[in-house]
């Protein structure tokens, strides 16, 4: 299949009734069942289904197509090709027959090109528009399906319509559109309907589930510290994890999906059980359902979309406890580091102007800062490390396993990997070696790591599968390191191993000893993919922080007035 973008058009006349659409989509379903190769045309527009851009999301048609196929737009000089997703207009320097954006690929240094078909251009361009591949795909097609496209631009590209073939050998053309198109007379079937309606019926007939558009939220070591404190207040800790829908409704776009959050929270060593799909507003009914004596939350306030305290009911009933919020870490700060590409958060690097601007402005509303949403500096202490560390020494019979890496933005991909490593032995003792920030930046580039060495240390120590952490481990796994920790097995994931500074293999020593093993986590989530999620949803995250801060400031003002009235 060959894909572009799809669009849901609204407000046009001539829409067919559902009964006729249902009959006609059966024709499409039959065509799908009898065809070996589909070729799709979509317009380059994306319908924004919201008054606020920060609340926009893909249409049902987008998600239906995503279920059928995944595709990338890339830097074509890299091997393999490298994808760039931008949150800004890339065409400020491009025009008719001129596609270079003026930016370079960070990996290979080649010039990046846009993927725009400017009006007046014919289908003779090669990469990045890939007309040759599109023409080849069209020539193999049995069916061409046009969803929502006016077809006023693509009519100029005869090769995409296989016009060189006799009419009887051309792929059949099916059009879904509320408007007239120049290709209507050539179509085997024209459906005057909305793309979403047609795709919903078609996907149901094919027995395919349309995936939800996932939103995200982050789990970081600040949450782990709160859970550590909460566990110390009782004997059994149950952690309620909200759904994507609840978070999006009350806070804004999450960073991790709910399934990812479930797995990550369960991997925190102080958690005994999770309660999936916990309501955003904690009620006495929820506490009684799980036989909980009380609930615990940080000393930062949590508000609903209406600005109400989510713990008001349990506070009134005296079944609420409070723990200290971890200063210097927040989703706001981590998101800002990804977007601004600064390195000021690295250890031993002075704060720069961009990062100062970030701490002053990221998520700042028009009326100033909230003490809960603002950005502050994280200060590592020996006491904090002791609180997170297991304090357990390896025992006789333990299999001592060493893993090393950045473990940046500690996520479910790391959890899956460590869980698989943990399953390799009956009594595993896993030591995680964390590289210094400057070393990680050498082999990962950009502004990695997003979390500095101190933050990454706490994130990894909080994982139930890890027994010990080597802070600032050497990049090469040396004989001294293996002998000192009495390591019996060294594991690495399926990600690329970058050579050491001198070009040598950092795992040469354990390979020579025959104790090196690759472990497939089964997860394709990486730190790069998380950063891409943030970049893709930048407007949503900025809007989220501003709305959240505005609600918090309103509560602070109300509390101040109440205090004044008392005096």
UniProtKB/TrEMBL annotation:
GO terms for biological process: phosphatidylethanolamine biosynthetic process. Zn(2+) binds at residues 6, 22, 105, 108. This is ethanolamine-phosphate cytidylyltransferase. GO terms for cellular component: cytoplasm. Belongs to the cytidylyltransferase family. Pfam families: CTP_transf_like, SIR2. Residues 1-209 form the Deacetylase sirtuin-type domain. Residues 536-565 form a coiled coil. InterPro entries: CCT (IPR041723), Cyt_trans-like (IPR004821), DHS-like_NAD/FAD-binding_dom (IPR029035), Ect1/PCYT2 (IPR044608), Rossmann-like_a/b/a_fold (IPR014729), Sirtuin (IPR003000), Sirtuin_cat_small_dom_sf (IPR026591), Ssirtuin_cat_dom (IPR026590). Keywords: Coiled coil, Lipid biosynthesis, Lipid metabolism, Metal-binding, NAD, Nucleotidyltransferase, Phospholipid biosynthesis, Phospholipid metabolism, Transferase, Zinc. One of its GO terms (molecular function) is metal ion binding. Its EC number is 2.7.7.14. Pathway: Phospholipid metabolism; phosphatidylethanolamine biosynthesis; phosphatidylethanolamine from ethanolamine: step 2/3; Lipid metabolism.
């Amino acid at each position: 299949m060959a894909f572009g973008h799809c669009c849901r058009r609204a407000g046009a006349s001539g829409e067919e009734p559902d009964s006729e659409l249902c009959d006609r989509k059966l024709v499409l379903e039959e065509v799908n069942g009898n065809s070996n190769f589909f070729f799709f045309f979509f317009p380059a527009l994306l319908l924004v289904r919201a008054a606020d851009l920060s609340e926009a999301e893909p249409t049902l048609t987008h998600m239906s197509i995503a279920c059928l196929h995944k595709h990338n737009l890339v830097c074509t000089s890299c091997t393999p090709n490298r994808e760039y997703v931008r949150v800004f207009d890339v065409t400020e320097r491009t025009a008719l027959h001129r596609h270079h954006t003026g930016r370079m690929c960070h990996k290979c240094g080649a010039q990046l090109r846009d993927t725009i078909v400017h009006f007046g251009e014919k289908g003779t361009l090669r990469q990045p528009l890939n007309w040759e591949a599109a023409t080849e795909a069209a020539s193999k097609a049995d069916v061409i399906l046009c969803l929502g496209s006016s077809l006023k631009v693509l009519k100029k590209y005869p090769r995409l319509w296989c016009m060189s073939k006799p009419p009887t050998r051309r792929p059949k053309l099916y059009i879904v559109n509320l408007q007239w198109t120049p290709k209507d007379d050539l179509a085997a079937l024209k459906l005057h309907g909305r793309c979403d309606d047609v795709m919903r019926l078609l996907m149901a007939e094919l027995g395919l589930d349309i995936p939800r558009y996932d939103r995200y939220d982050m789990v970081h070591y600040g949450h782990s510290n709160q859970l550590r404190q909460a566990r110390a207040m009782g004997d059994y800790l149950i952690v309620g994890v909200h759904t994507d829908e609840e978070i999006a409704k009350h806070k804004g776009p999450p960073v991790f999906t709910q399934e990812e959050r479930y797995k990550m929270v369960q991997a925190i060593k102080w958690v005994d059980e999770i309660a999936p799909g916990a309501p955003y507003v904690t009620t006495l009914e929820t506490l009684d359902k799980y036989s909980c004596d009380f609930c615990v939350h940080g000393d930062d306030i949590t508000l609903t979309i209406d600005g109400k305290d989510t713990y008001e009911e349990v506070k009134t009933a005296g079944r609420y406890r409070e723990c200290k919020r971890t200063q210097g870490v927040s989703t706001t700060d981590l998101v800002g580091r990804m977007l601004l590409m600064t390195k000021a958060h690295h250890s031993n690097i002075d704060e720069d102007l961009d990062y100062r601007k970030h701490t002053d402005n990221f998520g700042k509303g028009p009326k100033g800062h909230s003490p809960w949403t603002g950005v502050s500096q994280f200060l590592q202490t020996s006491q904090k490390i002791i609180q997170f560390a297991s304090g357990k020494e390896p025992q006789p019979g333990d299999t001592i396993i060493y893993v090393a890496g950045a473990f940046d933005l500690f996520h479910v991909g790391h959890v899956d990997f460590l869980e698989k490593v943990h399953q390799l032995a009956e009594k595993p003792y896993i030591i995680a070696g964390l590289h210094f920030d400057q070393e990680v930046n050498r082999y990962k580039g950009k502004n990695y790591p997003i979390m500095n060495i101190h933050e990454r240390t706490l994130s990894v120590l909080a994982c139930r599968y890890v027994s010990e952490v080597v802070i600032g481990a050497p990049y090469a796994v040396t004989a001294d390191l293996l002998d000192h920790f009495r390591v019996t097995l060294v594991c690495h994931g399926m990600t690329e191993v970058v050579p050491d500074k001198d070009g040598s293999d950092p795992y040469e020593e354990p390979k020579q000893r025959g104790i090196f093993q690759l472990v497939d986590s089964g997860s394709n989530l990486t730190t790069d993919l998380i950063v891409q999620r943030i970049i893709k949803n930048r407007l949503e995250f900025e809007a989220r922080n501003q709305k959240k801060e505005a609600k918090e400031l309103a509560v602070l003002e109300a509390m101040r007035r109440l205090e004044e009235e008392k005096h």
